[in-house]
């Protein structure tokens, strides 16, 4: 199946499900990494006995080092710790499941050390897709998507590359507010937005799903992953979340990938590709589902999706600006400091105000990220 894995973001939703898959397939875990969850990291470390555990927060790293002092597990901290976990010699596959731009440098480090990357950190390609994909091609690193939609497209394209592809179809659940108008969304509270109808995800991703920014981020990610211009990517709302995405070929035939909404399926496929392991999730019964429906997204109500589509065509540092502004705006919303619709207002303002750089270097991208965060913090 696969050699040892390093799991970046091991305490989050994708990370914990990755470890479930590793348990089921007896895949060894050589490194774990997280932001600050010392207590859960200790439990994971004692169960999997990795060589190394990286903790981004330095206080939490010191706490974990004390907790694990009776073991031989090395505890490292900060960004340099994440880079070590991403490039550990014994790791065959690096699962990048950390949330946000903190995943950019570790993903690049994994690329540069020619790992297989099971990519669950969409911000990496949103912010620096051109850089990352170019480096992966130069280094011969393998990037296998973990997002259910991108995994679906990857599976539909398997062994075909991009030959004969007319367009790809990204499906979206529509989130908890499908059918609402922009005006009706003004009164949405964090508690309401955190109740996703189909998926169990972390808070930030769940809010992004509610605004449909998550689909916008996936739109940009798909553009880079599959080398397609924005005009060849279509978003369709599919409330049942059974068809995870599809590919239309030049003869207008459509190949779709379906399954129950369970992230362990795409996680496992990224780890075992090109093989398939025993089912990690229940069998799909189309008879029980009964019907599958599709509709166009409402870009007037869910303005974040439309903004992301525009940003996809801008290129350069625009994705980094939008992503960073969105992260800060979502944090403000969760803290009760801005309205639900205020997320779009702040993000769109940041994209408009911060200078667009066509050929953005890594330094340009990181500087744009900081500038966007400061803009949002200063203008809410």
Short structural summary:
With 380 residues, this protein is of the alpha/beta class. Helix content is 48%, strand content 14%.
Overview of the structural elements:
The structure is a single chain. With 380 residues, the protein is α/β, with parallel strands linked by helices. 48% of the residues lie in helices and 14% in strands. The strands form 2 sheets. A 7-stranded parallel β-sheet has the order 4-3-2-1-5-6-7, with helices on both faces. α5 (104-112) links the parallel β5 (93-96) and β6. The chain starts with a strand and ends with a helix. The model has no long low-confidence stretch (mean pLDDT 95).
Radius of gyration: 20 Å
Which consecutive residue ranges, at least 5 long each, have pLDDT under 50? none
Structural class: alpha/beta
Mean pLDDT reading: 95
Q: Could you give a short account of the major beta sheet?
A: 7 strands, parallel
> Order of strands across the biggest sheet?
4-3-2-1-5-6-7
Count every helix, treating DSSP H or I runs of 4 or more residues as helices: 17
Q: Would you list the SSEs in sequence order as H and E?
A: EHEHEHEHEHEHEHEHHHHEEEHHHHHH
DSSP strand count? 11
Which word captures the global form?
globular
How big a fraction of the residues is strand?
A: 5-15%
End-to-end CA span: 49 Å
Helix content: 40-55%
């Amino acid at each position: 199946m696969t050699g040892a894995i390093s799991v970046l973001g091991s305490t989050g939703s994708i990370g914990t499900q990755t470890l479930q898959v590793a348990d089921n397939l007896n895949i060894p875990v050589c490194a774990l990494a997280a932001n600050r969850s010392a207590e859960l990291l200790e439990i994971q470390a004692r169960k999997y006995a990795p060589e190394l555990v990286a903790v981004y927060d330095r206080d939490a790293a010191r706490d974990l080092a004390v907790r694990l002092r009776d073991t031989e597990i090395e505890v490292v901290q900060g960004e340099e710790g994440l880079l070590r976990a991403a490039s550990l010699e014994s790791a065959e596959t690096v699962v990048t499941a950390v949330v946000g731009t903190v995943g950019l440098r570790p993903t690049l480090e994994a690329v540069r050390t020619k790992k297989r990357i099971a990519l669950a950190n969409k911000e990496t390609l949103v912010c620096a897709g051109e850089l990352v994909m170019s480096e992966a091609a130069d280094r011969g690193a393998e990037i296998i998507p973990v997002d259910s939609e991108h995994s679906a497209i990857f599976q539909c394209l398997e062994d075909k590359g991009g030959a004969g592809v007319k367009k790809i179809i990204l499906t979206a659940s529509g989130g908890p507010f499908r059918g609402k108008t922009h005006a009706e969304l003004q009164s949405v509270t964090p508690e309401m937005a955190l109740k996703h109808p189909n998926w169990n995800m972390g808070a930030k991703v769940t809010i992004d799903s509610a605004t449909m920014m998550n689909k916008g981020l996936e739109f940009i990610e798909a553009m880079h992953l599959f080398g397609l211009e924005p005009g060849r990517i279509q978003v369709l709302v599919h409330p049942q979340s059974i068809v995870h995405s599809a590919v239309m070929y030049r003869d207008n035939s459509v190949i779709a990938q379906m399954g129950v909404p369970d992230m362990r399926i795409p996680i496992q496929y990224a780890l075992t590709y090109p093989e398939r392991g025993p089912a990690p999730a229940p069998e799909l019964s189309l008879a029980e589902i009964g019907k599958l429906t599709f509709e166009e997204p409402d870009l007037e109500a869910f303005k974040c999706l439309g903004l992301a589509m525009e940003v996809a065509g801008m290129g350069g540092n625009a994705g980094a600006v939008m992503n960073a502004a969105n992260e800060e705006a979502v944090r403000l919303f969760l803290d009760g400091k801005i309205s639900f619709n205020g997320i779009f207002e702040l993000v769109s303002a940041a994209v408009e105000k911060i200078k667009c750089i066509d050929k953005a270097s890594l330094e340009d991208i990181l500087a744009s990220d900081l500038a966007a965060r400061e803009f949002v913090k200063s203008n809410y």
